[in-house]
Specification:
mainly alpha
Amino acid sequence: MTKIFIIEKGQKFTEEQLKQVEEAKKYSIIFDEDFQELSPAMKAFKSAVVQRNHNKKI
């Protein structure tokens, strides 16, 4: 089950949300045909995007 939290900049998590996140950490990720693990090429692309976005913030 997927839960989505939408918070605004500066907004704090509620105690209930923090408990739900801690509970979710106990579960492993299960990949299937709808949610596949990233290929090595896509992992490299993701890494490049993260680096690019990090450099934009500086």
